Design the sequence.
C-alpha cells in the first residue's frame, strides 16, 4: 500500500509562519473552525490555553496548515507546529520552490522583501538555485 504524507515544520510562531509560506507559495492557509474549537472547549475536551487569536480569528495554538489552492490532490499540505525550542542547526530536509515560468530572481527578491534571508547561491552543472532562510531560519531553495 502506498501512503500519503504532509510536510511538518517545527515553529515558534506557527500561524505567522503559515501566513508567510502561504504567501511565498501562492497557497492558502486552512481556515479555522471557530465553532468546533468553542465546542471542544465547552465540552472540556480542550481548554482556553489550547487556543489563541490570530488576525482576529480563534485558532488552535499548537499549529496552522497551508495547502495548494487546487487541493490535496495537487500537493501535500504543510503543517506548522508549535515547538518550544529554536532551530539551531541546518535542516536535513527542505523545500525546493520551483518557479516554473516565473523569474527565480524576482521570487528570491520578493521573499527577501517579506522576511527571508539569503544563505547562498548554488550551481551544480546546468542547475542553479538560491538558498534562503524563512523568518524562522528554515532553509528553502528557489530554482526554475
Sequence:
Amino acid at each position: 500500500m502506498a501512503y500519503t504524507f504532509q510536510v511538518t515544520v517545527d515553529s515558534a510562531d506557527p500561524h505567522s509562519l503559515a501566513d508567510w509560506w502561504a504567501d511565498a507559495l501562492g497557497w492558502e492557509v486552512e481556515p479555522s473552525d471557530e465553532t468546533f474549537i468553542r465546542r471542544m472547549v465547552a465540552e472540556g475536551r480542550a481548554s482556553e490555553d489550547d487556543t489563541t487569536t490570530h488576525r482576529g480569528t480563534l485558532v488552535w495554538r499548537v499549529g496552522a496548515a497551508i495547502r495548494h489552492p487546487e487541493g490535496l490532490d495537487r500537493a501535500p499540505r504543510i503543517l506548522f507546529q508549535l515547538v518550544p525550542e529554536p532551530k539551531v542547526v541546518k535542516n536535513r530536509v527542505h523545500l525546493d520552490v520551483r518557479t516554473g515560468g516565473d523569474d527565480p530572481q524576482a521570487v528570491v527578491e520578493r521573499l527577501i522583501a517579506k522576511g527571508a534571508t539569503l544563505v547562498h547561491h548554488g550551481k551544480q552543472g546546468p542547475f542553479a538555485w538560491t538558498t534562503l532562510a524563512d523568518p524562522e531560519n528554515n532553509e528553502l531553495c528557489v530554482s526554475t
